[in-house]
Amino acid sequence: MKPFRSPSQDKSSQPAPSNGGAGPLAGLPLPAIAAAVWVVASLVMIIAFPGAESTAFDGLRFMLGALVVMVPPSLIGLAVLVLRLAEVVAQPAAPLVPAAPPRQTPPQTLQQTARPVAARAEDDVPPMPAVSMPPMGQSAAAPAAGAARPRVAPRPPQPEAAQNDVQSLSRAQMVRALNFPDSAEDYEGFDALSQALSHPDARAVVQSAQDILTLLSQDGLYMDDLRPAQTDPQLWRAFSRGQRGPNLDAIGQFPDDNAVARAAARLKADAIFRDTAQHFLRNFDRMFEDFEADASDDDILLMAETRSARAFMLIGRAAGTFG
Questions:
Q1: pLDDT digits (tens, 9 = 90+) for 69-90
Q2: Burial of 156 from C-beta contacts in 10 A (0-12 / 13-18 / 19+)
Q3: Can you list the alpha helix ranges (DSSP code H) found in 49-186?
Q4: Is 153 helix (H, G, I), strand (E, B) or coil?
Q5: Which end of the chain has fewer CB atoms surrounding its CB within 10 Å, N or C?
């Protein structure tokens, strides 16, 4: 195959055309010759026809004579410069790298390397890694790290033997997991979160809590800034057993009513937020029913202090679940 040659390379390789003669003016360009002829002719006309004799110096006549002599050659030089620049811009640049021959790939190789997009969507999506949340008691200065995890279709129920192999979670681990790690050095929190993500039921509530916490942070609602009044554990037990009504109005009493109003406005205006919130409320409600069955009052109070429980009370208060 012949190497690629640009038009500029072809022109440079051709011999320059000869001027046909070796006279003294052969090497001068035509515009320079014309400018020189004009200057000489103008000087001859000015000297040969001086006009009326005058002993005084005529400044206006001298200025007009200088303009007549210098302006046309200057315009000729400017025109030549513009033409040269136009030629340089219009001339195609030579490629820096020679054109490589097209690579031929067998169709079978292309089919093996390309993965359809539909096949990727069917792959198992691994659980989202835990995000570092601000320490308890401190105001969060930035939104929660990590974007909202895309909604994935629920997996079919696993066989009973596989579920029995999964290590059961203790109530303390569940509390730590739903509070999320306080910092990057909270190794116990990350360990509890990892244990929860390996449990099917716990993974559902942890991931839905992570989704709603991320969406709430977009509105500047951080659970470390929201501290509801402590609730009697007996009210939580009544709620887990299905009791509703004014008797449960004490659950989720936030000192800042503005946070509840902002969450309620987001529920009405944002369909994605509303679906995520309802999904989280259902998962947390089912989890708390199992948690409360054998939990002590101290366990319930610790659960109510977690970031996930605060989000549950905030969304529940905004949706009218309590009271």
A1: 778 888 888 888 888 888 878 7
A2: exposed
A3: 59-90, 107-113, 117-122, 160-165, 171-179
A4: coil
A5: N
Question: Cβ distance 281 to 321 under 8 Å?
Answer: yes
Burial of 104 from C-beta contacts in 10 A (0-12 / 13-18 / 19+): exposed
So where are the chain's domains?
32-44+60-90, 169-319
DSSP designation for 96? S
Tell me if 226 sits within 8 A of 256, measured CB to CB. yes
Region of 231 please: left (phi>0), alpha (psi -120 to 50) or beta: beta
Query: Could you tell me the sign of the dihedral formed by the alpha carbons of 247, 252, 255, 258, in that order?
Result: negative
- Enter the pTM of the model: 0.49
Q: Which two tokens stand for residue 164?
A: 């029995």
First to last CA, the chain: 84
Q: Looking up tokens 């509303």, which residue turns up?
A: 274
With bands split at pLDDT 50, 70 and 90, how would you rate the model's confidence at 110? Answer: very low
Using the structure block, give the residue that is written with the tokens 């320059």: 16
Amino acid sitting at position 309: A
Q: Do 229 and 252 contact (CB within 8 A), yes or no?
A: no
